[in-house]
Write a structure and sequence with these properties.
Elements: H1 14-23, H2 30-49, E1 52-60, H3 66-75, E2 87-94, E3 97-104, E4 123-129, H4 136-147, E5 156-162, H5 172-178, E6 189-193, H6 202-212
Length: about 220
């Protein structure tokens, strides 16, 4: 019995057809293929190594240096500021964390509005003018009012002991005592000496936030 010598056409593998039809049409140019592969790889890597986000509320008395700190971190340079009436918000990226920083004015008439910014806050930056000894008790009262609010109970606390370049500036250990931080046992807090104009200590503060941030 003679066999038909004509060869049957080979079936295309379903995987190959799916790849060609869905991911890469046969007519797709190489640059399109490269862009597609890069996009897929980027999404895969972002799931593993992607940036985290953290909502930061930056508060403190007026003239403590909050806005100067914000734009030193954002722009890498000192900017001329005016007293903040309302708020500034900027995104600052450090390491693999995107900090969404809300800088709210510190004048006494604005402070009752601070609580409207508490919801969702993961980290508090409280800025102290370390040369302003006359108002350190006022700063302590405001700090404890913030951290005792139920909306802020899970926020980690970074104190920027600012204006360390001034001759009569209080040192970090003195700030800890004046603010009553040493008596706080159930919260994660840290005092970082800083100088907003030069940027000294600012990245170290962000490093502490990054290390202590729990998503």
């Amino acid at each position: 019995m003679r066999r038909n010598s004509r060869k049957l056409p080979k079936r295309r593998k379903k995987t190959r057809r799916w790849l060609r039809g869905t991911l890469m049409p046969e007519s797709a140019p190489w640059d399109q293929l490269y862009g597609l592969r890069a996009s897929i790889m980027g999404k895969m890597l972002s799931k593993v190594f992607g940036n985290k986000e953290m909502r930061i509320l930056m508060l403190g008395l007026d003239a403590a240096g909050k806005t100067t700190i914000l734009y030193k971190l954002k722009l890498g340079q000192s900017v001329t500021t005016i007293p903040t009436v309302g708020f500034n918000v900027e995104t600052v990226t450090y390491k693999n964390v995107k900090f969404n920083v809300w800088d709210v004015g510190g004048q006494d008439k604005i402070r009752p509005l601070w609580r409207h910014y508490y919801t969702g806050t993961q980290g508090l930056i409280f800025v102290i003018d370390c040369a302003d000894r006359d108002r350190i008790d006022e700063a302590r009262q405001e700090l404890h009012r913030i951290i005792n609010d139920r909306e802020m109970r899970d926020a980690i606390i970074l104190i920027f002991a600012n204006k360390q370049d001034l001759p009569d500036a209080m040192k970090p250990h003195e700030i800890q005592e004046k603010l009553g931080l040493t008596r706080i046992r159930d919260r994660n807090w840290y005092v970082q000496p800083s100088c907003a104009n030069t940027g000294e200590g600012l990245c170290e503060g962000l490093m502490w936030l990054t290390s202590n941030y729990k998503s």
